[in-house]
C-alpha cells in the first residue's frame, strides 16, 4: 500500500465515512452477537486452548497489511469467538462480569477522543470529569462538608485521589504514600538512608491472611519486601481479621526497631467477599497512630446501597481507600480509584516535568504512579448519570441477595455445604457426597473439641477410628479436594456455566480445603441459574465420587465409617 | 427505575437491540464528527477551561438515573465538544495524536469482550494474542532464532515481557527487575536487609539529563530514592548522553559502597526525540557488568523502518526495553510494553495467588505489576495485521521527514531558529525577532569561546557590551523565553494549531531557554500545516516583541546593540 492510500484510508479526517460505517456495522454486529450469546457457544469457546493457541503462532510481524474487512473477519473468527463470555449470567466465577450495554458507547467515545489525562493540554473536559468523579467517590466514602469539595474543585494543586488501572496500582499508590509520610524525605533519599535516619531496621504492613496478593506484590516493588507483610489470622468462619492477634502483633513490634507503615483493612476479601471490622480497625489505628488503608476494591460498592453500607462503617476513618470500578461498579476494564482522606497526602508523591505536568497546572499526572492514561473515568461518570445511586443500590442489593440465595441453596442441598457466610456477592461452598452430608456437622463438632471431649464424642459416633480420627479426616478432605477440583475443571470445560475455585483454611483450620467460589453479581443471574449450576455440579461430583471411591476406601479403609448408607 | 426495567434495558442479553442501535448510531456520529472536525471547532474548545469546569461541579453522585439519550446528549455537549482534538493534523504538540480509524472498532470489540487478561479463565484467545504480539515485539528488538520463540510459545511458564498501561509502568517493571537481579532475595527481604547483605549503602540509576521524569518517579516508588538517579550531562547540540562523563561517573562509584542497578539509554528523549548511542552504551554496560535498560517508549517504533532502525543499533543488547504503543505506533490510549532479552528475567517478580494465577497456569498476570488489565494488545495485533511492517515504515518515515522539514523551515526562516537536530519525529525551535536572527550565530560563536578569543570577538562585533556580554545575553534569553511562552499560550488559546513548549539547556549551556516543541507525526501533517503554524507564530512573536521591546531596552539598554535595523 502506498503512502497516500494508507493515509486516505485509515486516518481521519480524510477517511471515507461510507466504508468506515460498513466496518463499524460489522463490528457492532459481532460485538452484540457475542454479548447475546445467540450462537449458543460455550462460555469458554468450543475448541481447546491449545487449538486456539495455534491461531497465534506466527512469530514475525506481518510484512504487508491486509484489508480491514479481512482483518475484521479474522478477528471475529479467531478472537471474538474464542473469548470467555464473562458477561453471561451463568458465568459467576470471577469479579469480571456483566456491564451495562451503554459502556460500549463510552468506549467508542473514549477511543475517538483519545485524550491523555496525564495533562490538560491533551485532556480538557476529561480533566474535570476525573476531578468531579473523584470528588463523588471521596464524598461517598468520607462525606466531608460541602465547602471542602468546593475548595478542592477550585484549587488545582490539591488532589484527593487518583484513577489508575486497578486495585493493584491503587494499593501501591496508597502504600507508597503511607511509606513516604512515615519516613520524611524517603522518596528522595531512599529506604536505606531513611531507615537509618529513623533508627529503624524494618518496616512492615499488617493485613489479614485474606489480604489480596497485590499487597505482597506492592511490598516487593516498594522495597519493603514480601516477608515484611505480616499476615494476621482470620477468625474462623467469618474470614475477618482477628483483632486480638492484630493488637498482640502491634505491641510485639513496638518493642523492636520496626515501624508499621500501614494496617490494611480488607473490605471484601477476594476469596470470600467478607469484610473486616473497619470500625474496630480504625480505632486500633488511631490508638497506635498507624496509617489505615482499606482495600475496598471489591466491597467499596456497598457504600452505594443504604441497605448494606453499614457493613463498611469505619471506612470514613481510613487514610486511604481503593475502589475498583471494573469490579462491583459494573464498569468495563480497566478502572481503579484510590482516595485519600487528607487532601495533602498525595503531595508526598508529587512530581513535575518541564515539558508536561507543570507545577502550577491542573495536570492530573502530577500525583499518579502511571503516566499516560486513558479517559476511563468517563465510564464512571456515565454510569452514575445513567444508573444513579438508586439504580446501583438495586443492582448491588440484588447481587448480595443472590449470594445469600446460592449459599443457602448449597447449605440445604444434600450434596453441598456452604463454606463461608456471604456478606457481599461472593460465596464459597463445596461438593460433598450425599452419604456424608449429615455426618459432616458431627465431624466439625468433633474436630473443634479438645482432648477428652473429643475422644468421647468419637467413641460415640465413630468408634472404629478413635485412634486416628484426625488423620482420616485429613484423608477425607484430600479426597474431597480432588473431587471439587475435578468438578470445577469439568464444568468449565463443558462450558454451560462457570464458577471458580480457591482454597481456604477457615473451617478445617490448619488443613487447606478446596472450595468452589461464586461471584453471582450479574443482574440476570437468578435462582434458576443456581439450580442449573448446582445440578450440574452434583452430577459431576457424584460421578467423580463413584468413580474414585473404591480407590479411596482401598487406601483409607478407616474412612468408610464416616459415610452413611454406602 | 425499578429492578426489572434496569435489567432489561441495560444488561445483555435481555437488552433491546433496536434501542441500543439507535444509541450506537448517535455515538458513532458524534465520534466521527469530532474526528472530522466538521464543525470547525477550536483544537482546545471554544470556551475557557474555567467555563468547562463549571459543567462538572456537582459534588454528589446523582441519586436517580437519567435516560440514555439524555446522558448521551450531555456527554456530547459537555465532554466531546470540549475535548482536545489531538488527532487533528495541526495538533503537533504532544506524542498523543493521530490513530487509524479502525482502532475505534478494536475498542468496541475490547469493550464488548471485556476480557481480563490477568488470567486465562477470564481471557482465552486474548491470552494468546498478548503472547504472540509480545513475541513480535521481542523479535523486532532482539531477533532471536526461531526456535527461541517456538520455545516461548510452547512454555507457558516463560515470559519475555509484559504489557502495561504505558512507559512509566514499563520502566518501573524493568528497573524493579534489574534491582531484584542485582540484589538476591530483595523482593522478599526488602532493600534495607538486601543492602546490608551486599555490603552496600546505596544503589543508583544512571541516565542522561534528558531521561524521562518517570525514571525518578520509579526510583522513588521502588525505594531507591530520586536523589539516587544520577543524571549524566548530554553533549551539547546532540542531546545524547556524554559517554566520557558516564564512564567517569561509573569509575567514581566503583570506589564507593554503591551499586549501579542500571544504565538507562534513552531512545527518543521526550523533549527533543534524540537517541543515545545505544551501541556504545551497551559496550559500557558489558564492560562494567551493568543492567542495560533502554527507554524506547517513543523511539522504539524506528525498528519498523529499514531506513531508520540503524539509529537504534545496540538495542539488541539491552537487558530490557520499553516501547509504547500509544505513542509512535499510532495506537489509542493506553498501551505500553516492556521486553526482556533473557526469558528468565521476569522470574524475579513472579507471584501467584490461590484463587487466580496458579503456578502451573498460562495466566499472564504472573509477571505483571498491574493486576486486572484490559485486552489492549488487540490494538497492536490489529494494527500490525492491517498496516503491516511496510505500512508502519511508510508512516514512520513520513513522520521523521516531517520533523526534518519543519526544523529546516524554522532554521531558514528569518524569525526562528532550530534548537535541536531532529532524529525522530520530535523537534524544537524558537522564535527570534528578525532583527537578531543574523547576529545570533555570531553570539553563539562568541558564547562558546574562551577568555581572550571571546573578548577579541566581542570587541569586533559588540564593543559596547564588552564588559557585560554574558549578562546581556542572559537578559536577552529571558526576554526571548517570555515571548516564546506567550506565543505558545496564545496559539493554544486561539485554537487553530498547537505545539507544546519545554525548556532546554543545550545551546546556552547553563542557562535554560524556552523552546517550542513539535511532534509532527500525524500522516496528514505536511508543509502547508507548517507554513500555517510558523506564520501564526511569527505574527504572534512579532506582536509580543514589538509590544515589549521598549520595556526590555529600558531595563537592558546594552542589549540594543545586538539587534540590527532597530
From TrEMBL, chains A, B:
Mark the residues carrying the PTM N6-(pyridoxal phosphate)lysine. 327
Q: Which terms in the Gene Ontology molecular function aspect does this entry carry? A: carboxy-lyase activity; pyridoxal phosphate binding; transaminase activity
GO CC terms = cytoplasm
Q: Which GO terms describe its biological process?
A: carboxylic acid metabolic process
Superkingdom of the organism of origin: Bacteria
InterPro entries in the record, alphabetically? PyrdxlP-dep_de-COase (IPR002129), PyrdxlP-dep_Trfase (IPR015424), PyrdxlP-dep_Trfase_major (IPR015421)
Q: Which UniProt keywords apply?
A: Aminotransferase, Decarboxylase, Lyase, Pyridoxal phosphate, Transferase
Obligatory cofactor(s): pyridoxal 5'-phosphate
Which Pfam families does the entry link to?
Pyridoxal_deC
- For whether the record's keyword set contains Ligase, the answer is no
Q: Which family does it belong to?
A: Belongs to the group II decarboxylase family.
**Descriptive protein name:** Aminotransferase class V-fold PLP-dependent enzyme
Native organism: Silvanigrella paludirubra
